[in-house]
Amino acid sequence: MKTRLLAALVPAILFGQDALPRLSVAYFDAPSCPAGWAPYSPASGRAIVPVAPPSGILAQVGRALASGENRTHSHAVSGSINTGSAGYLVAAGCCNTSLASGGSKTFRTETAGAGSSIPYVQMLACQKRVEPEPAPIPLGTTIFYEGLSCPSGWSTVDAMQGYFPVASPAPAGPMGGARLQPREDRTHTHNYIGSINLTAQSIISFSGGLATGYALAGEYNPTGRTAAASTGFPYLQLLQCSKDAAGPPRITSIVNGASFTSNAIAPGEIVAIFGSNLGPDAGAGAELSGNRLSTEVADVRVTFDGRPAAILFASAGQVNVQVPYRVEGTVDVRVVYQDQFSNVYKAPVAASAPGLFSFSAPRSDEAIAVLGSELASASRPVPVGVPFVLYATGEGLTNPGSEDGRPRGTPLALPIQPVRVTVGGVDATIEYAGAAPGFVGLMQINARLNPGTPSGKAPIVLTIGAGSSARGVNLWVE
Fold first, then answer.
1. Model-level pTM?
2. Position 68 pLDDT exceeds 80
3. Residues 6+ apart with CB under 8 A from 429
4. What is the pLDDT of residues 184-205, one digit of tens each?
5. Pair 130, 16: CB distance under 8 Å
6. Is it the case that residue 57 has pLDDT exceeding 70?
7. What distances in angstroms separate CA 352 from CA 119, 124, 190, 259, one per listed residue?
8. Which DSSP string corresponds to 246-296?
9. Is the separation of the CB atoms in 211 and 235 below 8 Å?
10. What's the whole-number mean pLDDT along residues 264-277?
């Protein structure tokens, strides 16, 4: 059976309020918080860092950044240098100008203030203050959450605990230093080492400070380590959660399972329901329950005015079902997945809604026709007078009556409305039109082409009662 992928772009405004849980904290690129949200003051001037429960929630470290502030810090520096004998030593351009005897000399000073160079962007932080309303949230969406455990349908992002999230074109693992522990004020140090080769009575300078004086010839190697200093970077620790269960199902369209056209539905028809979060991502096939197809597959159920439908296939974006035979007027269709209910989709019901099965792209305009043991094609066209078989759905009520989800057996069910097939505008002779033995919702038509049928790629139309199959489907004729 062919499949097609349908995509629906729905403006976010149509969903109303979002489905994020109450107490969620998020950044917004906007001048003010949206409806139902309020500015989140605990995070003002701070980066939010994920932390594992139960410790560390709402822990604040360091002084908050002022708007646009580039925080600076300095380091104390200490070390030693061996100047030989009878040299002058002045450290850090300051105050030691006495004649020094030879030997190892120590020094201590402090670096000038320097920017932190930590990249950040200031965005509006808001917290959800109202209960959620149904709306789809993409899987993998992450939020900061003021709580000791993630809400239902969300899980802790273990790989990001203790790290500052940074936007990236592609996902990557943690980089840089070790993860922050709860309430940790990270400190760091700098090592330094260098050398200088002097001639007699030379001036020496090192390490950004200034050591001057007469020193003996030779190589001098100043080494040392800065004192440990706090980064001084303010941050707030909150739980980070990832959406790991899809939002409620949403139906966007219902189409004929053969033609993929959207019109009225018919009793017993195979239809394809398209939307989002309708079922499992991997998809699941039909299951038997006794002697009929199950009405629940992989936690997916579909109802038509409350009547359960037999399921042929279920996935996140598409569910194929058989329309129950007892439908009329306009029915309310709903998908239930993992006990979450979809929107109500209203579908009009017609006595028939025929659709011919055709090949997948690029031959989607060619009807599937079985000619002996082969499929009809441009290289194997259907001759006039030779029997061939078509497959369709949407014939409506049958005689004898058919049961929902039960594979057809004997006596074979026939549509109660007249059936007609034309190829190139010429009626074909129908030898059988009824249930396909052993299948659910599938109709089989055995026919022969009559003289006068045009050769080549000729349009084929199936008519059952007042309903006709979609135009644009063809049959290769010899």
1. 0.56
2. no
3. 447, 448, 449, 450
4. 888 877 776 666 665 555 555 4
5. no
6. yes
7. 64, 56, 81, 14
8. ----EEEEEEETTT---S-B-TT-EEEEEEESSS-SS-EE--EETTEE-SE
9. no
10. 93
Q: Which residue has the tokens 């994020």?
A: 20
Alpha-carbon distances of 157 from 95, 149, 154, 180, 280, rounded to whole Å:
54, 11, 9, 15, 22
Q: Is 226:110 a contact under the CB 8 Å cutoff?
A: no
User: To 5 degrees, how large is the angle CA 183–CA 187–CA 191?
Assistant: 165
CA-to-CA distance for 328 and 325, rounded, in angstroms? Answer: 9
pLDDT value of position 209: 41
Q: Which tokens sit at 473? A: 């489907």
Q: What is the pLDDT of residues 423-442, one digit of tens each?
A: 999 999 999 999 999 999 99
The answer to whether 333 and 349 have CB atoms below 8 angstroms apart is no
Residue with tokens 């993992």: 338
HEC assignment per residue over 410-469: CCCCEECCCEEEEECCEECEEEEEEECCCCCCCEEEEEECCCCCCCEEEEEEEEECCEEC
Note whether 344 and 302 are within 8 A (CB).
no
The structure tokens 């809604």 sit at 353
Burial class (CB in 10 A: 0-12, 13-18, 19+), 117: exposed
Pairing of strands 235-243, 47-50: parallel
Q: What is the 3-state secondary structure (H, E, C) of 79-107?
A: EEEECCCCEECCCCCCCCCCEECCCEEEE
Single-letter code of the amino acid located at 381: P
Tokens describing residue 123:
């965005």
340 forms beta bridges with: 337
pLDDT in tens, 379-399: 999 999 999 999 999 999 999
- CB–CB of 72/88 below 8 Å? no
Q: Give the SS3 label for residue 171.
A: coil
**Whole-angstrom Cα distance, residue 180 to residue 61?**
11
d(CA 227, CA 337) in angstroms, rounded, equals: 60
> For the chain, how big is the Rg over CA atoms in Å?
38
pLDDT of residue 56: 82
Lowest mean pLDDT among 27-41, 54-68, 292-306: 27-41
Section 250-272 average pLDDT: 93
Per-residue confidence band for 98, with pLDDT thresholds at 50, 70 and 90: very low
Token pair, residue 170, equals 């592609």
